[in-house]
Amino acid sequence: MSVAVADLVCPGTAASSAAAESRRPAILAVMAWLRDLMLSVLIAVLVVLFLYRPVKVEGTSMMPTLYDQERLFINQFSYKFGLGPIQRGDTVVFWVPGELSTSYIKRVIGLPGDTVAVENGYVILNGKKLAEKYVPPEFRDNRPYPPTVVPPGQYFVLGDDRISSNDSRAWGFVPRNLIYGKAVFVFWPLERIGTVR
What we know:
Shape: elongated
Distance between the termini: 92 Å
Oligomer: single chain
CATH superfamily of the largest domain: Umud Fragment, subunit A
Low-confidence stretches: 1-10
CATH architecture of the largest domain: Ribbon
CATH class of the largest domain: Mainly Beta
Number of strands: 12
CATH topology of the largest domain: Umud Fragment, subunit A
Number of domains: 2
Strand content: 25-35%
Order of helices and strands: HEEHEEEEEEEHEEE
């Protein structure tokens, strides 16, 4: 008398097989979650390395535009890959010439080839007074700066709070290769959230 193979299944084997089948969706869900987590981390790393990077403002030299301890995002993509030129009025982050372990954030005032001077608290750019609505009268500094031509590939930068700013008036121009980002968006504190002027 012959017996079909299917009729010889052990009851214990069937139970363990059913348990394994019930665990499979849980394992697949965990693997999918880990895959999504790794993808999210990779995207975040790429964004931080090439697009937007969070930085913290330390000091008052950019008041009233930026305040001490504010957190903001800088756009490093445009400057890093040469997709956008550095323009007058940009608020940029750069390594300090001669002190490459320190970063500053200042406003670009003079472009390569410009003649920059400071007289009675006002910037004279190429022979004309520069309109600077972002510098309140009480933040102007009366220290003179003689007319100086910005060399090729370099930039003249100033803080908006001219009285307390350590900037190009003290240590000179910023080479293009030391500028690595443009301030674009304040995200902390919440009451200051918004784009950087």
